[in-house]
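Sequence in, structure out. First:
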Amino acid sequence: MRLAGHALLGLLAASLLAAPLLAIAQPRPDLDGVSVREAAAVPQTNDEHPIRIARNPADGALYVLATSNPGGTGATTSTIYRLDAQAGETFDLVPVLTHNAHGTPRAVGMAFGPDGSFYLVGNAEAGDDRTRLVVRRGTPVGTSWRWATVATSEPYRLSRTWFDHRANAVAVTPDGSTLIVNSGARTDHGEMYGGVREEGLTAILLQIPAAARDLVLPNDREALRADGYLFAEGIRNTADLAFAPNGDLFGPENAGDRDDSEELNWLREGRHYGFPWRIGTSTTPMQFPGYDPAADPFVSPARNLDNEADTGWYFSDDPTFPAPPDGVAFTEPIPNVGPDADRYRDPVTGALLDASDTGTAAGTFTAHRSPLGLVFDADSALAAPLTGSAFVLSFNGPGDSLLDRMGGGGNDLLALDLEAGPGGYTLSATLVASGFDHPVDAAMGDGVLYVIEYGNWFGPGGSRSVQAVTLPRRATASEPLPDAPDLALAVAPNPARDAVTLRVTLDRPVHARLDVLDVLGRTVLRAPLSATTGTQVLPVSVRGFPSGVYVARLVTEDGVATRSFTVQ
């Protein structure tokens, strides 16, 4: 999908052909038991738009990255805000870092490691037609961070079109050892600009040691592979990344300007996800002789754009389009069986269909939604049917000409019920809330999903807010559970240094397990329990656990009990 003027290159997507601006309204819930309220407004004194939100496990606080002019030329500013809780369930946004303090050029990616290390990803200009990625690390020092450069790259060429996605997303592996960084494509579908289609450093995921210092990444695909820095390829623009509680890595994928389905991918090292030869579940037709965009039902007749490729308009007969790599099997996106965000276009007739109506599966989301803000209910704290779900936002919405062409929708929040099977994952997508103003990122905490709104995409104003989406929580031992056993869970000593003793008491035999989770909601220990009445005692070594707060969670068929403890 394309980006417009003041774009977050490599982070957002929007249609160039915009409808008139719509009136701003408070987002609304679309699922029973859900409520939405504005928790904070981002200051607009520097024309900054919020683009990232993340929780720091070291202090439990939420942080917001707001930036101005991240994709344009000229000066760029960025500020890191901390959300400080106030009375009435609102927050103050307190500035804690300026651009000069963190030193990341055009910062657009943000994540925290399990020890509170702060990582930012940005892009530095390297001449008129080149850029290079920059990854910076803030090591915690008291209440602030000491900054150093983890990695930069050799310069690589920009297309100077809407399709320069650049580096834009970062995730930290659960053990804190590695950064996964998205470096997006420079094209819509592999067309040529300036004699180049994709570069060695584009359309890939990188894996970078989190402790590296001043690493220089080569603009050479095979050198990246040989040096162990290439995680996956064939990635057009995975502008968000998230680890599930089981350690699997997922990422939503923005497709191009054809009506190809957008994706959620299970991202694995060494895989190729198809771009530019496969987008969504479509085979890119420009690679075949005699392609006629005027006869392509996936191309909008209004796509008369001013970014002409070397072979003509960017949808064109392209006789030099390269063949797919020999011996490489492309990994398909996760299929969506609906009921929501599952519209797709029939590849033969061009008819607009709904996967849940036709009994098929879209791969994965309705075209042009621009999925962002992936987050998981990592500790299964939410009530059914949301227990353990993933959540994803749609940045585009009403007024986007390409999404309107697919039947509209968007500017919303979806719950994703992921189900693992022998052939991989499938998902069911359900609408949770809608009416946001270009939602761009989300973070979870205590049954509340915090969503940031970018605001007006085409100019000043709009709702640049933090919206709190309160989701129904599962009952715990501190809350009444109808027909539930008496769940007793104790942890001692607290705080602990080398070991803790977990004591579980059940008043009747039930299927149960005991989990220990870190502050990010990741399971660090799982133990099955005997389905017997009485008390069971489990000694657990915590030697080698990073210092911090952990949660012991007793899960039974009837309810959940939790106890927190600290490892020193």
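Second:
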Amino acid sequence: MRSSSSGAGIVRGSTRRLAVLGLLAVVLAILAWARVFRVAPGIRWWAQLAAFLVLAGVLLAAVRAQHARAMGVLQASEARFRALFEQAAVGIVIVDPEGRIVQANGSYCDLLGRPEGQLVGRSVLDVTHPDDAAEAAACVEGLLSGERRSCQVEKRYVRSDGSIVHARVTRSLLHDRAGAPAHFIGVVEDISERARAATALRVQAHLLDTVKQAVIATDLHGQITYWNRHAERLYGWTAEEALGRGAHGLTADSGGGGLAAEILQHVARGESWTGEFEVRRRDGTTFVARVSGSPIRDATGEILGAVGISSDISDRRALEAQLRQSQKMQAVGQLAGGVAHDFNNLLTVVRAHTQFAVEALPPASPAREELAVVDRATNRAAELTQQLLAFGRKQLLQPRVLDLNATIRGVAAMLRRLISENITVVTHLAPELSPVLADPGQLEQVLVNLVVNARDAMPDGGRLLVETAETVLDEHDVRHAAADLAPGRYVRLVVRDTGTGMDEATQARVFDPFFTTKEPGKGTGLGLATVYGIVSQSGGGIWVESAPGYGTTFEICLPVHRATGEGPAVRRSGESAVDDCRRGSETVLLVEDDASVRRLVRRLLAREGYTVVEARHGAHALEVAAAGSQPFDLVITDMVMPEMSGRALVERLAADRPALRAIFMSGYTDDPRLQRGLPVSDAAFIPKPFTSEALLRVVRGVLDGAVPEGGVLVA
């Protein structure tokens, strides 16, 4: 625009000079003519006129030559302006005070994707993105008010195809000779690439802020150059506080930052590094972090700094510890169950032969008292094996739909007798509690064991709290539970004491069998192991919280029972009408893989008049049954045998014998179907070790049809 004004000035100046020179030429010609006329009055008038015309012509020729030179300068100036305007790499647009486009160069037209003919006469607002119109108008108002000589804005244009282009516009206002606004001139620079790059950076920053890991970048001196949102949450420092500071001080490990320095050393050599260590937050708390560090390189491959990605793996470490504990407990439980099974077979033989020896002695024999000691030891050993089975989750539960509050009230008097007078017992029982499906006798054992454990932890007295409530475990709760639980509603039992408490090492082993902190001879170490097994086999979970000097809390969660039935019908021999040990004459198929137990049972049955057909295992029993040489009235089988279980054997035999009667024996059983009833209606289960009276009573009861359909008769 300045070049255009200069050109117009040249034109006006040249015209004025031409008029002045022409007038001067006429004046000079007149003066010259008058002079000549005075000097040579004798010259004729026509000669004087000719001289005048020649002189005027010379002067006018000089004036025309000067005008031609001025016009050449003007045209060259106009050509330079046009070339600069059209060939400029940035867009140039001239707009009148009303906002209409007067002229636009090629770069501006290319930027908008429109020819100049479609732009001239249109308002610049027609091609401006609506969201940017207000800012552009504010820039114009500032120029018109005189507050600014120029202004710069970044705005978006709408191209002819509807696409958007980002531009930086620098505007100036030109005035006419009277000082009134004449035109706006705008220089428009395409910044779309920069805008896209900025958008990409914003997206990348947003993505880094949304990841659930701390992302930290540093230079080679360890000064922080980037700190994402999760780093703020993980370490406690805001980005404003962290940027520019040393990473050693903000993410120091418990060893004083040595590992952070080690990471930078690896990165400086172009190496990546990964490790796990304990780091400190701003508030002083610590957590276990997994950190991966890698070098940051420029386009030439030169290392500029390091980027580290860290995450809190404390929960994962805890879950791994819980998994290892669960696997250990499962392995020990499997071992305990196997030992109990074999031991119960031995106890069965010892108990029965002890009874045989007692029966063979005269009533006044001193040996009877010795054998009574053996019998009592056998009973004690049987109790220990039952505790092992409870821990190993191999015992046969007799579940009932019951009210946990009623169970607690039922044993309250017994619990108070177990503790000393200097211990205060407090119960907080929820007024409304959903039922659970559990073995009431086993739940009573859980309560007794926990109360005894609390009593021993308070030798100088204290307070014992027994509390019930109903709770809901969500995905987070069950994920962090040591037991295999599902989300849902649970009944919660809490037993809390104010005793000596336990350290972490003791808590880690508190449920291990035979682990005890008591003096030798003061405990077997099976009490809490039994509790763990009973709760786990009942589908629940148990947790312990403790600290030295702050007491101990055991929390048990049992799933709420939603079914309408009450599980299998289970009766104990003492509650049954089956108290008859009468002799019999029926034939019994006896299947037992342990030869000593098989001989013992055969002897007991044979001396009472029964005919016994023996089989060493399930396959042998099927062969005996298929031979059919001696039909049998009853099958007595061990539950756990190699190749074929007792249950599978009875199911095979019952396929051809709908009225089959059966008795199952076992030192333990891990068959969960047994808790839902036995495979035939006339069946019973007798646990090892058993007495001869118990076995004969169950045999007679099954043969006489005294077992309820689908029931389990436990001797």
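Remark: The longest strand covers residues 164-175.
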